[in-house]
Amino acid sequence: MQPIVLTPLCDIPEIHPGDALAPLLEAAAQRAQKTLSDGILVVCQKIISKQEGRLRSLKTIAPSERAQILARETNKDPRLLEIILGETARIVRQAHNVLICETRHGFVCANAGVDCSNVPGDEMALLLPEDPDASARRLREALLALQHARRGVQSARLGILVSDTFGRPWREGLVDVAIGCAGFAPIDDARGHLDREGRELRVTQLAVADQLAAAAGLLMQKAAGIPAVWIEGVPIHGDGTAQALRRAKDLDLFR
């Protein structure tokens, strides 16, 4: 085992719709004396969503009757609820000040991932990316192209992970998880391997992408303004998407 090193990428400016993220992230890595190769870049969902223009003004929203009824039941802004409903495939649970939704992506989280914190402007809401896995792939391709253009070489050993902060059933506190990834396998499947006693492992699958997102989250505190973390020392193999982390409905005993 080799040490795993996490480096925060600092001084990244406020992101606006249409900004080119790859040059900004590479410049931040250079300031940290890091090269974005042979590692995994964890990027918080917010800068991806901002770059993709996933911003909505509450001032322009006319809440539906359903949103108004839900607002009375949850004590939330009906305009915000109208936005949330547009991102929701199913309401899992609702209570006073609480709304747990299954998003169109299949994520189960508070408010369908719609967030009003650290969003510039008055009464603005930020939505999750349309397709976080596609966002991760595009960012990876842009970084690889930038490497090739500047140095004539590119590293295929580059993983991209888009993270967001979720609550958890039965556990207090929030943890960053992977909602999009590209360039590495999000799950390390140990089934068929042997444990230290020589017994065959039958069910062990490690959610590596979530573990890395949680580790990076320790450095990506909201007030610190650090939207990206570079991770070295993690074996990079395979490829996949964050959708692999979703448990199939027929195997989910808690639905």
Structure in words:
The chain is of the alpha+beta class. It is 26% helix and 26% strand. The protein contains six helices and twelve strands. Helix 1 packs across helix 5 (132-151). The protein starts with a strand and ends in a 23-residue tail after the last strand.
In brief, what are we looking at here?
The protein is α+β, with helices and mostly antiparallel strands and 255 residues long. The protein has helices at residues 21-31, 45-51, 65-74, 78-86, 132-151, 208-217; strands at 5-9, 39-44, 55-57, 88-95, 98-103, 108-110, 124-126, 158-168, 171-182, 188-189, 205-206, 228-232. It has two domains: 5-54 and 129-246, CofE-like (60s Ribosomal Protein L30, Chain: A); 55-126, CofE-like domain (CofE-like fold, Alpha-Beta Complex), CATH 3.90.1660.
Provide the descriptors you would attach to this structure in a database record:
alpha+beta, 26% helix, 255 residues, single chain, 5-stranded mixed β-sheet, 2 domains, 6 helices, 60s Ribosomal Protein L30, Chain: A, CofE-like fold
